[in-house]
Amino acid sequence: MDRCIVAVVTLCMVLVMVSCHRPQKPNFIVMLMDDMGWGDLGVFGEPNKETPNLDKMAAEGMLFPDFYSANPICSPSRASLLTGRLPIRNGFYTTNTHAHDSYTPQIIMGGIPDSEILLSELLGEAGYRNKIVGKWHLGHRPQYLPLKHGFHEWFGAPNCHFGPYDDINTPNIPVYRDAEMSGRYYEQFIIDKNTGLSNLTLMYLDEGVKFIQNQTLRGQPFFLYWTPDATHDPLYVSEKFYQTSRRGRYGDAVRELDYAVGEILKTLKLLDIEKNTFVFFTSDNGAATYAKTSAGSNGPFLCGKQTTFEGGVREPAIAWWPGTIPAGQVSHQVGSTMDLYTTLLDLAGVKVPTDRPIDGISLRSTLVNNAVVQRPVFYYRGNELIAVRLGQYKTHLWTFTNPIEEFNRGVDFCPGQYIQNVTTHDQIHHDPPLLFHLGRDPGEKYFIKSHTEEYMKVLPMIQKAIDEHRKHMVPGEPQLNMCDRAVMNWAPPGCDKGDNKCLTAPPSKPHLCSWPH
Amino acid sequence: MDRCIVAVVTLCMVLVMVSCHRPQKPNFIVMLMDDMGWGDLGVFGEPNKETPNLDKMAAEGMLFPDFYSANPICSPSRASLLTGRLPIRNGFYTTNTHAHDSYTPQIIMGGIPDSEILLSELLGEAGYRNKIVGKWHLGHRPQYLPLKHGFHEWFGAPNCHFGPYDDINTPNIPVYRDAEMSGRYYEQFIIDKNTGLSNLTLMYLDEGVKFIQNQTLRGQPFFLYWTPDATHDPLYVSEKFYQTSRRGRYGDAVRELDYAVGEILKTLKLLDIEKNTFVFFTSDNGAATYAKTSAGSNGPFLCGKQTTFEGGVREPAIAWWPGTIPAGQVSHQVGSTMDLYTTLLDLAGVKVPTDRPIDGISLRSTLVNNAVVQRPVFYYRGNELIAVRLGQYKTHLWTFTNPIEEFNRGVDFCPGQYIQNVTTHDQIHHDPPLLFHLGRDPGEKYFIKSHTEEYMKVLPMIQKAIDEHRKHMVPGEPQLNMCDRAVMNWAPPGCDKGDNKCLTAPPSKPHLCSWPH
User: Sulfatase N-terminal domain: which residues (chains A, B) (predicted)?
Assistant: First the structure.
């Protein structure tokens, strides 16, 4: 009986401590979805309206309909978010083939270079504790892992969870707890290949919530980088949301993520730290339309993941910060995932590196005052600048979907869509460039003829932005050129502990990676 | 001074009267847009989010993402709304060509038959005063006009406002005030052909608001059928909204209509009758995608106006009735414009005719309790049943966009979209029928193969609904077969008054109308 009373007193003391030591610096949560499309949220017009928590988040915060990922494919997009720099600068591209997509499968030798200054590193120096929950995708070799690049905690995997995995040609992907593996997908961390049942999203939710709770108790500002991947093929979902969506398995996964977002925001309110926590929700690239009914929706936009059409890079985006961001705002600020780098540093009072070009801008005045500044968007594919947006205009210097041979094998980046001279299977260089107005024509269907007054007025302005961009462009060392089966996750740190097992790597045979599109 | 005091006293008395004589029967406002697409509202994912009043209406009411027009083209759709019956029953179709669209241009001889019992007629008998503001489109010959079919007041036009009009081969369309013309488009009622400037939407707003005010003072229940046509090509907008949209002229028109909707709802609140007024917002058919950047958006759906793909018939739809419809609801009830007939009669306590098949159902329990009942949707084109939706499944018995000759002349109903064996230019009869799941595949891209368990389970259920439907189908006398230049609006009633002029009709030469698609 006495012990119970003591316990209650202790709890009160802790609560008082929390309220006294509330950090001055705001907390940050970046929620980065995987292959989720612009059109997957009710608030962005998904017809089944199955994202009540995200829609509420938008109603309480600021919606960004003109927000972009830095690249139409996963690893480069994620590297850019954490470096504030385009893949062409931070090295997340290939020169093996012109204008082809590349990423970090298990055989990739490269990863995030030490020379890059990550958001996590700068926030760590400023007193933040940083945790990544979910997919990393910036390289899986030991030197590239999150705890070597500014994160203090990690629960998740370095690569995608797709297969086939047989532990002979291909090891299962490890799931890390901080610096060591904790098990592997399909072994200790189950995803049922037939049903798609898995508790991973719930685990990621739990990891996020506990981190928030712990940091609140510690009174130390935090950066939670929450990157679940249930909407990346193979889709997965827990029992609770299994077969609950009107949209099939993809919708089940979205519903569970929507639930998890709601739970995280609820946690902030329960802990009374919502007014000191900036939350941003977005996705790493457009919906993977080639996965057909296993893919999400890019709404009215053209094509999807791996292309520089709007469907490949226009992202769902919501900022939430009660008391600082007025509720119910829509901002047509053209934003980028790279702006999260710059914005978070600004909000934390940390200087942005000045020794290198940074492509992100601070969205502080947008968030607080709904200010809009004009800035160009540069759409790269691999090592080539493909398109540029300025204001509501977008120009295509090149057009390219995927090679006709791949398309003929059934890989279609633009299913049900065909626009002559635009959705080309050859890499077409357009001179004069194609020009579209994204307001009148969000689907990039009707190019503005080059002899019109409108074209002749607009194109020189875009050309000027391109010239300026190219003048200062020094490409980084490409990280995604070399592959080697020996570097796969055969024996990650910690493989000798618990139920884990270390596998034997084959002999090293470095070779140029093959990127099909 | 004395007179002023008397005036104040009188006003007080009027107000007391209003509050004593508040009608028991609810007022009705049906706002029917013209060629506005599902994807044109912010709440349905239009990226520029330029419909704050409609989005607010949805937040205060009930949103219907699964709501359909009775037909993919204007006149048949409108005839069905007011009769509660499919065009095949009420005669708004042609047998001149198989499965072709038809409507009521100036040369049409037919119109709404006297044998049809219109919503306006039944509500009038029940004590309602009915006004139509805007486009009628159920026939322009004297016997077909609104005041012959249950409406007590009218301000608007019987036909579309497009040209060319030269008063020699084609008279300008009359604008009626009740039973007589008040002037003509491009003469007394200006639409600037170059800029699109026109005050028509503001006039329609004013007409609607004044009618509401008058009826409130009279204490008589009303039915306002508000059908502006600013989003039908040629688009028009007033100075106030001219060049204010991020979407070009189409967006200007939408912004002005959104404003007008807001003003009407505001009027209801100011008059304190919002709790006794059921308001429904929808559109007559999908966006006219063939008009390219002058057209609206059908969001993620396939094709547009004049087709039976979702883009042709899935409509934006919002129900609003503070105090009766709980705020912020989304209903996945599959609804139809024909349900407005049945629902309004139900809410007014009026019996639905029992001497004929009625295709609408009452949405009362949906509106009040968010109940959902399963019911099929029959998608007709002209005289042919093209497709059927049941639950989330849709089957195509036929596929057809428009003839290849027309397409080759540049008329494209599905710009930027192409789906093999689906967006066909020939009329293809599918046996077995094509089957789609609209939840997983809202774009009708991936048909479910006919040997699958899913297909074999679902198709018999749909077939049963089709058999039932056909068993009771007695097509009405087709109204849209015969054309004659003599019946054009040469000398409408009232043409001999004011500034109007009567034109001389050419000799009568009735002939079969030509319907190109």
Answer: 26-350
Q: Would you tell me the crossing angle of helices A2-20 and A200-218 to the nearest 10 degrees? A: 80
One-letter amino acid of A253: A
Residues of chain A with CATH 3.30.1120.10: 384-472
Name the catalytic one among B100, B137, B430, B517. Answer: B137
State yes or no: pLDDT of A15 exceeds 80: no
CA–CA separation, B259 vs A308, rounded Å?
36
CB of B44 within 8 Å of a chain A CB? The answer is yes
CB distance B284 to B317 below 8 Å:
no
Q: Give me A85's structure tokens.
A: 């720099």
Three-class secondary structure of residue A282 per DSSP: strand
Residues B229-284: pLDDT tens digits?
999 999 999 999 999 999 999 999 999 999 999 999 999 999 999 999 999 999 99
Q: Please name every residue paired with B385 in a beta bridge, in sequence order, or none if there are none.
A: B380
**Residue B418 three-state SS:** coil
Q: In what order do the strands lie in the sheet with B377-381?
A: B377-381, B384-390, B393-399, B428-437
ipTM of the complex: 0.93
Strand order across the beta sheet in which A428-437 lies: A377-381, A384-390, A393-399, A428-437
Q: Kindly report, as residue ranges, where domains of CATH 3.40.720.10 are found in chain B.
A: 27-375
- Cα gap B236→B192, rounded to integer Å: 8
Checking if the pLDDT of A10 tops 50, the result is: no
Q: How far from B35 is each of A34, B4, B95, B291, B313, CA to CA, in Å?
A: 36, 49, 24, 11, 10
Q: What are phi and psi of B16, to 5 degrees?
A: -65, -45
Test A416 with B443 for CB contact under 8 angstroms. Answer: yes
Q: Please tell me the distance from the alpha carbon of residue A226 to that of residue A72, in angstroms, as a whole number.
A: 19
Q: Using an 8 Å Cβ cutoff, are A488 and A457 in contact?
A: no
DSSP characters for B289-350?
GGGGGGS---TTSSS-TTSSSHHHHEE--EEE-TTTSPTTEE----EETHHHHHHHHHHHT-
> Measured between alpha carbons, how far is B140 from B106 in angstroms, rounded to an integer?
7
Tell which of B62, B246, B298, B407 to mutate to test the A interface (max A CBs under 10 Å). B246
- What are the chain A neighbours of B245 within 8 Å (beta carbons)? 439
Q: Flag if B417 and A418 touch (Cβ within 8 Å).
A: yes
- Residue B155 three-state SS: strand
pTM for the full model? 0.94
Cβ pair A347, A278 in contact under 8 A: yes
The C-alpha angle A80, A85, A88, rounded to 5 degrees, equals 90
Q: For this structure, is A469 an active site residue?
A: no
| Dist. CA B451–CA B459, nearest whole Å | 11
| Active-site annotation holds for A74 | yes
B251, closest residue in chain A (CA to CA): A440
Architecture of the domain spanning B27-375? 3-Layer(aba) Sandwich (3.40)
Tell me how far CA of residue B452 lies from CA of B260, B447, B449, B466, in angstroms: 50, 11, 6, 21
What tokens does B373 get? 């009942």
Q: Which of residues 246-285 of A touch B (CB under 8 A)?
A: 246-248, 250-251
Considering the four listed CATH numbers 3.30.1120.10, 3.40.50.2300, 3.30.460.10, 3.30.750.24, the one that applies to the domain covering A384-472 is: 3.30.1120.10
Q: How far is CA A305 from CA A310, B208, B214, in A?
A: 9, 47, 56
Contact between B331 and B318 (Cβ < 8 Å):
no
Decide if B512 contacts B482 (C-beta within 8 A).
yes
- DSSP-based three-state secondary structure for B38: helix
Closest Cα partner for A364 from A376, A377, A346, A341?
A: A346
- Are the beta carbons of B251 and B57 closer than 8 angstroms? no
pLDDT at B19: 44
